[in-house]
Amino acid sequence: MSAKRLVILVVPVLFLLSSALAQVNELSVTSGLSFVSTQTVPSTGDPIHFGNASGSVVVDYSRLLMTRKIFGIYAELPVEIGTPMNLNYYYFNQVPKNIGALFVTPSVRVSFFSRDSVTPWVSAGGGYGYFRVSSTTLAGGPNPGGGSNSGVAQFGAGLDVWFWHRWGARFEARDFYSGAPNLNVDTGRSRQHNYYVGAGVGYRF
Length: 205
Description:
11 strands, two-stranded antiparallel ribbon, Porin, mainly beta, 1 helix, 205 residues, 9-stranded antiparallel β-sheet
């Protein structure tokens, strides 16, 4: 068989194979804000405010596992990196000046109309969280407490809009439901909601 005929036969096969295997992976990066609701310290009756919403970034890698009619089922790994969030408490010599967070939560995502240009989705999973706290208190003294680890449950929903070839826009909201961080005071809570809302870009490959 001549090289020309071989190319004519092989190229369509490679094209079909690459099409079948293409775009089973997705990578997205979003930037947004994280929120934690106010908590009250039972012993004093005073609230701890988690300041203004802090800036956060979520990087998410996902891989398509299967499709069923309009549904696509993905394994995904969302990672949130949160910048320090200021704390505000009446007894300012007790609590840390600020607190940041890292969440790594392997999850399962279900996308609706998964191969269309507009794709809503929901996600759920769980993993690891780490809270890093400032070395000083609000009063400027040394912080006697330290960072803490936590198990985390993740629940999310979002919308992907694939507007150009393999590129798209992502809008998402997630709740990283974690253990309570070390704030040097007892809030009476063992867990807390860490909400994230963001927007960014996605890429299929």
